[in-house]
Specification:
- The structure holds 3 protein chains of 3 kinds.
- Chain A is mainly alpha-helical.
- Chain A is built from 25 helices and 3 strands.
- Chain A has helices spanning 9-24, 30-53, 85-108, 115-134, 138-156, 163-194, 199-207, 218-233, 242-245, 251-260, 265-272, 274-278, 281-302, 308-328, 332-359, 377-391, 397-411, 417-442, 475-490, 499-504, 509-554, 558-566, 568-574, 579-626, 634-659; strands at 2-3, 62-72, 75-83.
- In chain A, a hairpin with a 2-residue loop joins strand 2 and strand 3 (75-83).
- By secondary structure, chain B is an all-alpha fold.
- Chain C is mainly α.
- Helix content of chain C is 78%, strand content 2%.
- In chain C, helix 1 (4-24) runs antiparallel to helix 2 (28-53) and helix 2 packs antiparallel against helix 3 (57-87).
- The model of chain C has no long low-confidence stretch (mean pLDDT 89).
- The chains are: A mainly alpha, B mainly alpha, C mainly alpha.
Chain lengths: 660, 175, 100
């Protein structure tokens, strides 16, 4: 463990930017705000590059102790930072993609009134996310965890005058909190049994723990509870419901927080806790099952959505499911690999979608798009690259990471062919709905109105251009698109030959010895199998493309006929299986009713308010009664005095008598 | 023996006068019975040997204060008391209260304390010389303060009782 | 030889009569006189105790009580005169407005 003095600067720089913009931004010019925000974020990125260039696996992991925090008996927590290969990957992803999205938002949010607020919140988010990935301690990670939830709430509800945006922000925060409950209980268990939350100390003790093959025990409990937290943050079943609603926020927010970084915090946390999971097979299985089911479930919803951002949201949930599936079968490095490539192409998809939305005056419904490729060539090009990447076509990035996951799902000692099969089916569906989006948006005839370029007054983006008709976005928005497209193209090549996995191997040490042994065994037995499975998944991707081409390019009237013939099933899928309505009936409405009846009327009004009111009226009654003593009549006063005097005399005599 | 008879005699006059004060309806009768009470109290003081106090009692109390009362009764033309709605509290609470208090004190005095020590006649001779010595040595400050008190009382009485037109007449005469 | 308690009893009777007069009588001047009666009763007990304990200060204190009673009587009667001027009555039950 070597110390690295730059580690604490990386989170602090965006925090400084957030503070400056937050306090002084209201009165500053937009140029100044932009300069501050980009400078601090860019500085963090440059610092990350510097740290990366000086990184050497021999002296990893690095750490830096900033300040004391808690000291309570033998339990202590410090503000300390930690850098190993896993954190380095996350660090580069977060700062790099984050910086690009900051540049993009300059163009996207320029005309908005609260521009300074947006930039401040974005920098604040960067601070919290960096704290999360660089933490050396579960509790410091939890600060970042909560903080990104807060930033997410602030940014989702950025247009807070809109009811739906405010409600979406609330929903995100509350559902996150449910997950955080699980996380906290896991932390409590760790404190109780390991007397520390520091990564090195906890994992030291965990490594000495026997594997819980019986399916129950402390590590299983911790693992399951951590998974609850991750399910909340990373939108897995059953806590995914906030992510589609979170699309109410501006598109850069969706790109940064809900595609590239915040939602991956859960995956990072599970990967970080790999030592715990590997000794709790039952928890691993649960993680894999949740991930797989979520991947399939969300993909099926995605095929019937009409809002371009909602399609991408469900796609994110589905891809996160892949990552959890990877972690669940023990292939943590594959999960992180997919996290990285997903950050590239999903971030790109969202930013390109934002460019599309921006270009047609705020419209988000794909049924009103079409034929946009001649109006927005660069957006079209970059989005095409991203779509091929997510569908898993070689040689794009998504192919390598997704294929790695599918192979490990099949071959790992925790995996099974069921996971692999569902994964392939989901890949097919993913390819289908992504190309559906591609065809609907960019091909065919333009189905929107020509006047859409004017002040449409769309709720996302009241953005009057006065141009009339769709147009390309400015270069400040296209630049990041190009960079991300480039990364989506070559980003996967780092995994060729298992180089990425070997790089991350020291982090997942305890399992990876077994992993490596198994893998060499597996490889020896089935390089052929691996190639076969790869071919199957690529053909699934082609199949999806073909189906989308048929339905949405060649015979565009066919989807409506199919939807009509499927009737109720299609309705259920289009309405997200009515899960939100179910939650509403099961949880939300009883809570609100209970709160209104019991807590508001019952406790607040009838007990607390009543106490105050009644004590006031009691005081009034008492004084009303006592008032009659003051009649102005001299003799009654004298009467009271005489009576009182008699009482006093009696008391004194009695005391005297008694004492004697 | 004589001591006891004298004590009883003057005591009886005191009590009779006090009760008469309660019973009479015209204030002047009450005033006169009060004078009788004070006179007999002076005699009681003499029995106790306090000659200076007895003299002061007659001179100041009976001779000055009661005269003041009688003058006021005459000035205000006070007549017989009218019937008026009294205070229920005073009658119901106060009278029993004071009676009970009195009874308790009496009971304590008679049966429960060491107050049975006999006091001979003329027990403590209160010479004017002795009293003066005490008054002007130990109690000099209170003595001086009381003189200031009397001054204030005089001024207060004048201010309270003066007629408004008398003030105006005085102002006109001067101005 | 009269026991001290007899003097104190007499003093108590006078005091009780004074209080009763205060409670029962309606004429302000009579009420004042009852107050004087109370003070007299107290004076008697002072002198009695002085005789019992051979402390001359008891008699000196009687002196002060009398001075105070005189001052109080003067001021009180002046107040009565002032009240009579505005209320035209000496009945204490009709002077119950707590302000002139």
């Amino acid at each position: 463990m070597t110390p690295n003095p730059y580690l604490w600067l990386v989170p602090i720089l965006p925090l400084a930017g957030a503070a400056i913009n937050g306090f002084f931004g209201r009165r500053s010019s937009k140029k100044a705000i932009t300069a501050v925000a980009l400078a601090f974020c860019g500085a963090a990125f440059c610092l990350a590059l510097l740290i990366a260039s000086e990184f050497s696996s021999a002296s990893a992991p690095y750490y830096f102790n900033l300040a004391h925090w808690l000291r309570s008996g033998s339990f202590q927590v410090d503000f300390s930072f930690y850098l190993d290969q896993l954190s380095l990957v996350m660090l580069l992803v977060v700062t790099g993609v984050g910086f690009l999205i900051h540049i993009y938002s300059v163009g996207y949010m320029w005309d908005d009134d609260g521009y300074y607020r947006f930039m401040s919140y974005m920098n604040l988010f960067m601070f919290f996310m960096l704290t999360l990935v660089l933490a050396k301690d579960y509790l410091v990670m939890f600060i970042g965890w909560e903080g990104v939830g807060l930033s997410s709430y602030l940014l989702i509800g950025y247009w807070f005058t809109k009811d739906s945006a405010a409600a979406a922000g609330k929903k995100a925060f509350i559902v996150n909190r449910i997950g955080d409950c699980g996380f906290l209980i896991a932390l409590f268990l760790m404190i109780k049994h390991f007397h520390s939350l520091d990564f090195t100390k906890v994992f030291e003790q965990v490594n000495a723990w026997p594997t819980e093959t019986a399916g129950a025990g402390l590590l299983t409990a911790i693992g399951l509870l951590l998974m609850v937290g991750a399910a909340g943050k990373s939108a897995q079943i059953p806590l995914y419901v906030w992510l589609p609603d979170a699309m109410e926020g501006p598109t850069p927010v969706s790109a940064l927080i809900h595609a590239a970084t915040m939602v991956t915090a859960g995956v990072y946390m599970v990967a970080r806790s790999s030592a715990i999971f590997e000794r709790a097979p039952m928890a691993m299985v649960v993680v894999a099952i949740i991930g797989t089911l979520t991947a399939l479930f969300a993909a099926t919803i995605g095929i019937a959505q009409t809002d371009i951002k909602k399609v991408l949201a469900y796609s994110t949930i589905s891809q996160l499911g892949y990552m959890f599936m990877a972690c669940g079968v023990g292939a943590f490095s594959a999960g992180i690999f997919h996290l990285m490539t997903h950050a590239f192409f999903k971030g790109l998809l969202f930013l390109a979608a934002g460019s599309v939305i921006h270009g047609i005056g705020g419209e988000q419904d794909m049924r009103k798009m079409g034929g946009l490729r001649q109006y927005m060539p660069w957006t079209f090009l970059t989005m095409t690259i991203a779509t091929f990447a997510i569908a898993g076509f070689p040689p794009f990035a998504g192919f390598f990471s997704k294929d790695e996951i599918l192979w490990k799902a099949y071959s790992s000692e925790y995996g099974s062919w069921v996971f692999w099969l569902i994964g392939v089916i989901t890949a097919f569906i993913t390819s289908f709905y992504m190309f559906r989006l591609w065809f609907l948006t960019f091909f065919g005839d333009y189905r929107g109105t020509a006047a859409q370029g004017d002040a449409h007054g769309h709720d996302d983006h009241s953005h009057g251009h006065g141009h009339g008709g769709p147009h390309e976005s400015p270069w400040v928005m296209l630049g990041p698109l190009v960079v991300l497209a480039f990364l989506s193209l070559i980003g996967g090549w780092i995994g060729i030959g298992g180089r990425f996995e070997h790089f991350l191997a020291p982090v997942f040490q305890s399992g990876s010895a077994a992993e490596l042994a198994h893998e060499t065994a597996g490889e020896a037995a089935g390089t052929g199998t691996e190639t076969l499975l790869m071919l199957i998944s690529v053909s699934a991707a082609f199949l999806g493309l073909f189906l989308a081409w048929t339905l949405y390019f060649r015979r565009p009237q066919l989807p409506a006929r199919i939807a009509a013939s499927l009737g109720g099933l299609y309705q259920a899928v289009a309405h997200k299986y009515y899960i939100d309505e179910l939650y509403n009936v099961l949880f939300v409405k009883p809570l609100i009713d209970g709160s209104t009846e019991i807590l508001w009327h019952g406790v607040d009004q009838n007990v607390i308010d009543a106490t105050v009111d009644n004590s006031a009226s009691a005081a009034r009654e008492v004084s009303d009664t006592v008032r009659h003593m003051q009649s102005g009549n001299l003799r009654s006063y004298a009467g009271w005095v005489a009576a009182g005097g008699a009482v006093v005399i009696a008391y004194m005599i009695w005391m005297g008598v008694w004492v004697r | 023996m004589l001591h006891f008879i004298l004590f009883l005699f003057f005591g009886a006059i005191c009590v009779a006068g006090a009760v008469n004060l309660l019973v009479q309806s015209h204030p002047i009768n009450s005033a006169l019975s009060l004078i009788a009470v004070m006179a007999s109290l002076a005699a009681e003081y003499l029995l106790l040997g306090a000659e200076f106090v007895a003299a002061v009692q007659v001179i100041v109390y009976a001779g000055a204060i009661m005269v003041l009362f009688v003058i006021t009764i005459m000035l205000l033309n006070a007549g017989k008391e009218e019937r008026s709605k009294g205070s229920r509290v005073a009658i119901l609470l106060g009278v029993p209260g004071v009676l009970i208090g009195g009874v308790l004190v009496a009971w304590t005095l008679l049966y429960r304390s060491n107050m049975q020590a006999p006091v001979p006649i003329g027990a403590l001779k209160g010479d004017p010389a002795d009293i003066a010595r005490l008054l002007f040595h130990n109690f000099l400050l209170p003595f001086e303060v009381t003189s200031v008190l009397i001054l204030i009382a005089i001024m207060g009485a004048v201010v309270l009782a003066i007629r408004p037109e008398a003030v105006a007449r005085g102002a006109r005469k001067d101005g | 030889m009269i026991p001290l308690s007899y003097y104190l009893l007499l003093s108590g009777i006078l005091f009780v009569c004074g209080v009763l007069g205060f409670l029962i009588k309606r004429n302000i001047i009579t009420i004042f006189m009852s107050i004087e009666l109370m003070l007299n009763g107290v004076n008697l007990s002072f002198v009695a105790f002085a005789a019992h304990w051979h402390a001359l200060s008891g008699q000196v204190f009687v002196f002060f009580v009398m001075v105070v009673a005189a001052a109080e009587a003067a001021v009180g009667l002046a107040i009565i005169i002032a009240v009579y001027r505005t209320r035209e009555t000496l009945n204490v039950d009709q002077v119950n407005l707590l302000k002139l």
